[in-house]
UniProtKB/TrEMBL annotation:
GO cellular component, one term: cytosol
Alphabetized SUPFAM superfamilies for the sequence: RmlC-like cupins
Name of this chain's protein: dTDP-4-dehydrorhamnose 3,5-epimerase
Active site per UniProt: H63, Y132
Keyword annotations: Isomerase
Function, in words: Catalyzes the epimerization of the C3' and C5'positions of dTDP-6-deoxy-D-xylo-4-hexulose, forming dTDP-6-deoxy-L-lyxo-4-hexulose.
Molecular function as annotated in GO: dTDP-4-dehydrorhamnose 3,5-epimerase activity
Species this chain originates from: Streptomyces coelicoflavus
Amino acid sequence: MKATEVPRIAGAYLFEPTPYGDERGFFCRTFDADVVRSVGLDPAAFVQDSVSRSVRGVLRGMHLRSGAGEAKLVRCSYGRIFDVVVDLRPHSPTYLGRASFELSGETQATLYVPAGCAHGFQSLTDTSDVSYRIDRPHDPAEDVTIAFDDPDLAIDWPLPVTSMSERDRRAPSLAEVLKHREG
């Protein structure tokens, strides 16, 4: 497994395993504490694992947490997704930077999203399973959502959106979220 720093998002990493394939399919390690530790992250900091299943065109995001934020490891374990991270940490050298990735069950790559960054994805296949490893328990009172189609974000989602949560549909603009965070 190798770790590569994401240039547009300070402190974000892409962890790429080495799948070993044969006639049965493949095997790969999707989490390695030593590799995580090698980039300065504490593997024991992750306290919660979650999974979502989405159908083609479903969009989930853009989400982040207020307060101390939430760091997470995100992996598409089945299918393919278009994954986006936006740096909303005011003192970060990559503040307002954006990065997108295609994560898939074929590669099993894992993206580390630092606390203070917004995250979202769109399912590109009929079924996409996404696994999250999160560094603190979820508190719904800290949920923050930004409009996925905000022109300031200028995210070029690859497919028409077929479905999203009511919360995502009613999400405020990036400017509104930033104003609220500053005030």
